[in-house]
Amino acid sequence: SQTIHQWPATLVQPVGSPLSLECTVEGTSNPNLYWYRQAAGRGLQLLFYSVGIGQISSEVPQNLSASRPQDRQFILSSKKLLLSDSGFYLCAWSVLGRPDEAFFGQGTRLTVV
Amino acid sequence: AQSVTQPDIHITVSEGASLELRCNYSYGATPYLFWYVQSPGQGLQLLLKYFSGDTLVQGIKGFEAEFKRSQSSFNLRKPSVHWSDAAEYFCAVGLDSNYQLIWGAGTKLIIKP
């Protein structure tokens, strides 16, 4: 069966420090991969999605970047965090080429102080 | 542009009472429709989905949803809610054009004892 792992679960980082959140998927190949940010009362904001290794599409310009160094690995990064980067970040995967359900990781609560 | 509207930010229901959460979408073609549930501090879990066929869809945890094309709606229902149903619920539309999900802002369900 397929599983998705996202870590860390919580993170407190000072302003100006770098960020690296990692997400890996097991049990499937060639998945669509997604990074979302969730703000209270605002639903899910799609940050990045990827349909293959090295292929990243950015939905919202901001202080973050994403990379997909391996088929089932998706990394969210920042060189210098801002206070406004605080939030709940969710990684998800779906079957490539279908508008089907997305499977979510448990999320990372990022607090920038 | 495609959009998903969940008009109720919060809904409070007594335990044992019936529930209906509203979802309306704007999309030119027949959409793929989803309801997800999110417990506090967790990722999202799929409750049910509609692709085609019977417009009344049964999901997990006793939930059902009905697709009404004429009203562009996909409302979620449960005949009798339990305290464990307290969570945030998200409606989403899957696009056949680019396989993305468009998300509603969510409805937070509060259960009164």
Which series of helices and strands of chain A comes N to C?
EEEEEEEEEEE
The residue-averaged pLDDT of chain A reads: 90
Contiguous uncertain segments of 5+ residues of chain B:
none
Overall strand count of chain A:
11
For this entry, what is the oligomeric state of its chains?
heterodimer
How many individual helices of chain A?
0
Which two chains touch over the largest interface? Answer: A-B, 24 and 21 residues
- From the spread of the alpha carbons, the general shape of chain A counts as globular
Keyphrases for this structure?
heterodimer; A: 113 residues; mainly beta; 7-stranded mixed β-sheet; 0% helix; globular; B: 113 residues
Structure description:
Chain A is an all-beta fold. Chain A has no helices and eleven strands. In chain A, the strands form two sheets. In chain A, strands 2, 4, 5, 6, 9, 10 and 11 form a seven-stranded mixed beta sheet that branches. Chain B is an all-beta fold and 113 residues long. Chain B is globular, with a radius of gyration of 13 Å. Chain B starts with a strand and ends with a strand. Classes of the chains: A mainly beta (113), B mainly beta (113). The interface between A and B is medium-sized, with 24 and 21 residues.
Q: How do the strands and helices of this protein lay out in sequence?
A:
The complex is a heterodimer of chains A (113) and B (113).
Chain A: E1 3-7, E2 10-13, E3 19-26, E4 32-38, E5 44-52, E6 55-58, E7 65-70, E8 73-78, E9 87-94, E10 103-104, E11 108-112
Parallel strand pairs in A: 2-11
Antiparallel strand pairs in A: 1-3, 3-8, 4-5, 4-9, 5-6, 7-8, 9-10, 9-11
Chain B: E1 3-5, E2 10-14, E3 19-21, E4 24-26, E5 32-38, E6 44-50, E7 56-58, E8 64-68, E9 73-78, E10 87-94, E11 101-103, E12 107-112
Parallel strand pairs in B: 2-12
Antiparallel strand pairs in B: 1-4, 3-9, 5-6, 5-10, 7-8, 8-9, 10-11, 10-12
